[in-house]
Design goal:
Structural class: alpha+beta
Low-confidence stretches: none
Order of helices and strands: EHEEEEEEHEEEEEHE
Number of strands: 13
Distance between the termini: 9 Å
Mean pLDDT: 87
Largest sheet: 4 strands, antiparallel
Number of helices: 3
Strand content: 35-45%
Radius of gyration: 17 Å
Helix content: 10-25%
């Protein structure tokens, strides 16, 4: 069986403030009965515990597979690229709108962002504009880059949940879908 994760990534949180925001966001999920405080039986590939869906999870969801062992919310703190496996097929320049299936070294820019190197830019062959990889659009399934993410495993959340979580965190959030 495969797993699906809907990531709500805080794209504005610094590495220093991410742990505090993680506590704030998780406390809100518990207060709203979206998540429980006791970890379930499943664990992510990072060894992070999943917290089981709460009594009101369905009200914020398209579908909750709470009968699965691997269903719950994970809170991930640390520099992370939230992405759809195995990788983007196409990327699009935000300035000229040109899409590329190949021929641009987006992987190098992603690696530079993840390693926190200074130059994580990608140059568009069509318009020659250099933009940080976080500003490019990943087609098919968008990617998010951040220091804090809430991963809803085997749980299709409603967009309203991501919007409200962003308000609680005080930053712009981005949704990224992962399937493996």
């Amino acid at each position: 069986m495969s797993d699906n994760i809907v990531w709500v990534a805080d794209v504005g949180a610094t590495l220093e403030e991410a742990p505090i925001l993680a506590e704030r966001g998780f406390a809100w999920l518990v207060r709203e009965s979206i998540a429980q405080t006791v970890p379930g039986q499943g664990y992510s590939s990072y060894g992070t515990a999943f917290y089981r869906p709460g009594a009101k999870a369905a009200a914020w969801s398209v579908q909750v597979c709470d009968d699965l062992r691997q269903c719950g919310v994970e809170v991930r703190v640390g520099r992370t690229v939230f992405y759809s496996c195995p990788g983007p097929i196409s990327v699009r320049c935000q300035h000229c709108g040109t899409s590329y299936d190949e021929g641009v070294p987006w992987g190098d820019a992603v690696g530079a962002w993840f390693a926190n190197e200074g130059d994580d830019t990608l140059i568009c062959p069509a318009c020659s504009r250099a933009e940080r990889i976080v500003d490019w659009t990943f087609l098919e399934s968008d990617w998010a880059f951040g220091n804090l993410g809430f991963g809803f495993h085997n749980w299709s959340i409603d967009d309203a949940l991501a919007d409200e979580l962003g308000k609680v965190l005080g930053h712009r959030v981005k949704i990224a879908y992962q399937h493996y």
